[in-house]
UniProtKB/TrEMBL annotation, chains A, B:
EC class of the enzyme, as a word: ligase
Protein family: Belongs to the PurK/PurT family.
GO term, biological process aspect, one: 'de novo' IMP biosynthetic process
Record's catalysed reaction(s): 5-amino-1-(5-phospho-beta-D-ribosyl)imidazole + hydrogencarbonate + ATP = 5-carboxyamino-1-(5-phospho-D-ribosyl)imidazole + ADP + phosphate + 2 H(+)
Entry protein name: N5-carboxyaminoimidazole ribonucleotide synthase
Gene Ontology CC, one term: cytosol
Assigned EC number: 6.3.4.18
GO MF assignments: 5-(carboxyamino)imidazole ribonucleotide synthase activity; ATP binding; metal ion binding; phosphoribosylaminoimidazole carboxylase activity
Keywords of this entry: ATP-binding, Ligase, Nucleotide-binding, Purine biosynthesis
Source organism of the structure: Thermomonospora cellulosilytica
Superkingdom of this protein's organism: Bacteria
Length: 393, 393
């Protein structure tokens, strides 16, 4: 920005699909997106001109990456807090900053902070490594079974959350294994929810806020399967309450950029589940379904540009995640899906197809929710399974 | 496409803003866009991962570029026909092919072909280099003054078209200079048009066609200033006729990809002005204003993928071109424009700001045409002139 007429450089740490889709927005805005990827084959590295190869766990790599960036932001939560603090101490503009981001990195810190602030959270407790079973037993007496055991940071073997039904031998073995591996654990009530919602907001350093319509997220096998925008038949007051809650959390935590608040809808209100401070799977629908995509909004927020309109472009937008099927040769199925529905939008992440891997998403929009859901579902299912769709899904 | 699950590579010759915006579409489709640019500073080269530096006038550079591309297509019309024919002879899939593209490269060839096919064209004639003034005189006797003198290919000093009012000393000097420079000239009637329209269509190798709503293009000082989609108050029958004409031309010429037909609206119909076989300035509005952007559509067409829906997303979409002003430090004005109108979309092309240079465009959409035009205009004018907008524009 120091050179007249030159546009800023935003550095995004991580080369996944969120950075990839952010590049589409950056091209339009005229902003340069620099990506720190672990290899040139990563999703975003395949589509950006300014790619640096390095490890997000290496302070040296982060330092070299940040040089020349006007702002550094994150494609994921796995950058060590101490590295972000070190960059901040050296004058790098990290947004969201380490203090805010910690609440998306450490679930126990998040619970402590939000509970203290009066945000609706489920009962929770630390699970000490020296007496985990006793702690769970005691917690279950208060909250009832089943319990949700979570790794406070990261996870183990790709998982960060386990539903524990009782303290039978299987659970005892699981908890023992997690503790042996040094995974820090916490426990939460298994909230008896009606459905899952997500409230996506943006906040700029000036404190300007913008809220997207609250969406319903449909999980299957622990993976976000479908997002419906707006959440159908959601009470107007509750929708406004969820948006206010997300904006309030963003302000209290000093978030700059996007904040996605995953929530449970329960009798009489909502309960906070998880936080993410970046573009989020629950916001992919905004590419076609909102005047400003979440990716553009995140860039605007971290650059302290005025935020864009979050107005929806259609009555309903449905996003279905696209998982890899058994047959990696997806192109013939792609042709079928395009021919079947000229208005459905398929987004591929440039990833090799592997069974169960999230390789893209599909968006449909229109006035009739059932029809829109069916269109998005058909496209995602067909891309995964082909003509066997009906038998498999 | 031979490797299971791998997506095709589209090579685009030319590194301008059309290739740049095509990259946004390619990222979503999961298609790799490879760009042949003259320097890493070109508009598209700044945002693509797969950039080859070379000259579009060098057959060797084109050959090396085409290797590994599933299809080669064009960001502009300046690739020599003989080079495209040579690539085709070597088995490279060039789309649109040399035979079709010639009609977008040579205005005289286009007139001969379209007139023979019965498409509405203005009276025209060749201007022989050995007796140019006599030819103009004779043509004016039939068609009246003023005349439109055109370079059949390329142009001279950045211009390809001159309005000649008479054969006074100024005109004599101009024609003499053009002939001396070896510019091949033709002459056309100065069509007494009501307004200018453009019909954008796509055609796939299978022969599938898709037509966008016909738009009005507003020129100022010979530069496209504003595009209104759809063309306001255009007679339904005339709109359908213009779409049919464009689809018919695409089929007759064997165009694969996009075809933009610039037209004059005259009493009783339309007259063809120019052809372009690539994404076109008159179609930039489709990024926000149509279900499928022209850039996505071009990729789908040249890859022989089923074409996408051309349905508009709003009642009116207005695109205003953004020209550089005297002050290259555009960023503060960008902030103002975003704050002023959170729903307007600014697209920057990554070009240095120079007075009068096309550096981006602005899109607004909505139900009230006057309001939408005013919003697009304000944004483009303010970005160019800043607070002096009112005095300058």
């Amino acid at each position: 920005m120091s050179i007249p007429g030159q546009m800023p450089v935003v550095g995004m740490v991580g080369g996944g699909q969120l950075a990839r889709m952010t590049q589409q927005a950056a091209i339009g805005l005229g902003v340069t997106l620099r990506v720190l990827a672990r290899s040139p084959q990563e999703s975003a590295a395949r589509v950006c001109a300014d790619v640096r190869i390095g490890e997000h766990t290496s302070l040296e790599d982060l330092r070299a990456f940040a040089k020349g960036c006007d702002v550094v932001t994150w494609d994921h939560e796995h950058v060590p807090s101490e590295h972000i603090r070190a960059l901040e101490a050296e004058g790098v503009a990290c947004l969201p900053g380490s203090a805010a981001l910690l609440h998306a990195q450490d679930k126990f810190v998040m619970r402590e902070r939000l509970s203290a602030a009066g945000a609706p959270c489920p009962p929770y407790a630390k699970v000490p490594a020296d007496a985990p079973l006793a702690a769970l037993e005691e917690f279950a007496e208060r909250a009832g079974w089943p319990l949700v055991v979570k790794a406070t940071r990261g996870g183990y073997d790709g998982k960060g959350l386990w539903i524990v039904k009782d303290l039978g031998p299987e659970s005892v073995e699981l908890i023992g294994r997690l503790v042996d591996q040094g995974v820090d654990l916490m426990v939460e009530q298994h909230v008896p929810f009606r459905r899952e919602l997500a409230a996506l907001v943006a906040r700029s350093p000036y404190g300007q806020g913008a809220a997207y319509p609250v969406v319903e997220t449909v999980q299957r096998d622990g993976i976000c399967h479908e997002v419906i925008a707006p959440a159908p038949d959601l009470d107007d007051d509750l929708a406004a309450e969820a948006q206010r809650l997300a904006l309030d959390i963003a302000e209290r935590l000093g978030v700059v950029g996007l904040l996605a608040v995953e929530m449970f809808e329960v009798d009489g209100g909502v309960v906070v589940n998880e936080l993410a401070m970046r573009p989020h799977n629950s916001g992919h629908w905004t590419i076609e379904g909102a005047r400003t995509s979440q990716f553009e909004q995140h860039l605007r927020a971290v650059l302290n540009l005025p935020l864009g309109s979050t107005e929806p472009t259609a009555r309903y937008t449905v996003m279905a995640n696209l998982l890899g099927g058994d047959d990696p040769d997806i192109y013939p199925r792609y042709i079928h899906v395009m021919a079947h529905d000229p208005a459905v939008k398929v987004h591929f992440y440039g990833k090799e197809v592997r069974p169960g891997r999230k390789i893209g998403h599909v968006t449909a929009l229109g006035d009739d929710l059932d029809e829109v859901r069916e269109r998005a579902r058909h496209a995602a299912d067909y891309l995964r399974w082909g003509p066997e769709t009906k038998e498999r899904s």
